[in-house]
């Protein structure tokens, strides 16, 4: 796997990373999204401290990830239930 050395700037600090080439673009996009979120928090909530803005970003991103995880679990459970019902129907047909 090809690794790349990149630098992501977040809240005025550079973070050097070694990342798989396939993840480089994703990490750059996420870095830009975090920068955008920081600016929005600073503008909308009168946040002066970058640490506070970063904490708010972490909370928002964590909450979003949790919501997506719960939605995925619901979809998987629903799919499993439907597959179980289909298998039961197929079993009845075979009898």
UniProtKB/TrEMBL annotation:
It comes from the Bacteria. Pfam families: ZapA. Gene3D superfamilies: Cell division protein ZapA protomer, N-terminal domain. InterPro entries: Cell_div_ZapA-like, Cell_div_ZapA-like_sf, Cell_div_ZapA_N. This is Cell division protein ZapA. It comes from Cloacibacterium rupense.
């Amino acid at each position: 796997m090809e690794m790349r050395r990149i630098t992501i700037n977040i809240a005025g600090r550079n973070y050097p990373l070694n990342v798989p080439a396939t993840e480089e673009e994703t990490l750059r996009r996420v870095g830009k999204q975090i920068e955008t979120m920081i600016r929005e928090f600073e503008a909308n909530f009168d946040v002066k401290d970058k640490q506070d803005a970063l904490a708010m970003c972490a909370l928002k991103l964590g909450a979003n990830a949790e919501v997506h995880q719960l939605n995925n679990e619901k979809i998987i459970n629903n799919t499993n239930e439907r597959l179980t019902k289909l298998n039961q129907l197929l079993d009845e047909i075979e009898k």
